[in-house]
């Protein structure tokens, strides 16, 4: 009985969070704020449903910890996708004038469309011989 | 009680999927479209898992796992294409 209540609560919470995440996609004003809704709320909603599914399988016998794998995968990949989408948005909608100077010769990596490879500024190695 | 909660969750994620579809069709910018597609994948995973729960079957776990992986790779590839005009440089 307690397990039933727990699973139902997890399902309802997961459903509400998933709906809020998708609704935020339409409601929020611009992309940088809109990124918050799916990456946080939706991921949490799916996490709730997966936990409920795991509990349900355990109650009915023959459960497994498989679902945690999907939860872990989603929690790991959501920020990476969000970062890439933010970079794609910045490449199209942010100009160099909006950003502080980099302090180097090259501009910001997101805005740098040249094909040159990134070269780190190496400090020259110390001359051979005894250090004085 | 679990059946009712399950129906509620089905309705929530189905509605979320419809909202995302609307956002894919009428998106103001292209990154918005990628974001909506990514959210559709997340909602779809939840729906597949719920369907597996409904049928008391562990068969749908692999489907949702594969869906999560292909969804992640396709979102990143699309974003990378928009960013640089090329996926693997």
Task: Indicate the low-confidence ranges of chain B by residue numbers.
Answer: none
Work out the largest interface and the residue count of each chain: A-B, 56 and 51 residues
Order of helices and strands of chain A: HHHH
Q: Supply the CATH class of chain B.
A: Mainly Alpha
Q: In which range does the helix fraction of chain A lie?
A: 55-70%
Briefly say what this structure is.
The complex is a heterodimer of chains A (132) and B (89). Chain A is built from four helices and no strands.
Describe the structure.
The complex is a heterodimer of chains A (132) and B (89). Chain A is 62% helix and 0% strand. Chain A is mostly helical. Chain A has one domain. Chain A is elongated and about 75 Å long. The mean pLDDT of chain A is 83. Chain B has 89 residues and is an all-alpha fold. Chain B has one domain: Helix Hairpins, CATH 1.10.287. Helices cover 83% and strands 0% of the residues of chain B. Chain B contains three helices and no strands. In chain B, α1 packs antiparallel against α2. Chain B is flat and about 50 Å long. Chains A and B meet through α1, α3 and α4 of A and α1, α2 and α3 of B.
Feature tags:
heterodimer; A: 132 residues; mainly alpha; 4 helices; B: 89 residues; Helix Hairpins; 3 helices
Secondary-structure blueprint of this entry?
The complex is a heterodimer of chains A (132) and B (89).
Chain A (H helix, E strand, L loop, with lengths): L1 H26 L3 H4 L1 H24 L6 H28 L39
Chain B lengths: L1 H24 L4 H25 L5 H25 L5
Helix pairs in contact in B: 1-2, 2-3
């Amino acid at each position: 009985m307690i397990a039933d209540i727990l699973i139902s609560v997890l399902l309802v919470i997961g459903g509400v969070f998933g709906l809020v995440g998708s609704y935020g996609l339409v409601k929020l004003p611009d992309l940088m704020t809109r990124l918050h809704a799916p990456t946080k709320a939706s991921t949490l909603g799916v996490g709730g449903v997966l936990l409920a599914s795991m509990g349900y399988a355990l109650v009915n016998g023959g459960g497994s910890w498989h679902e945690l794998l999907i939860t872990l995968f989603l929690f790991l990949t959501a920020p990476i996708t969000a970062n890439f989408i933010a970079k794609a948005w910045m490449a199209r909608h942010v100009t160099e004038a909006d950003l502080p100077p980099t302090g180097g010769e090259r501009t910001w990596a997101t805005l740098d469309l040249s094909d040159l490879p990134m070269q780190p500024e190496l400090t020259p190695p110390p001359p051979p011989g005894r250090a004085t | 009680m679990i059946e009712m909660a399950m129906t509620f969750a089905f309705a929530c994620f189905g509605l979320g999927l419809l909202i995302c579809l609307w956002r894919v069709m009428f998106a103001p910018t292209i990154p918005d479209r990628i974001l909506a597609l990514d959210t559709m994948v997340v909602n779809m995973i939840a729906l597949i898992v719920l369907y597996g729960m409904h049928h008391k079957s562990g068969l749908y776990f692999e489907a949702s796992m594969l869906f999560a992986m292909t969804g992640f790779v396709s979102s990143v590839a699309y974003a990378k294409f928009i960013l640089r005009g090329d996926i693997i440089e």
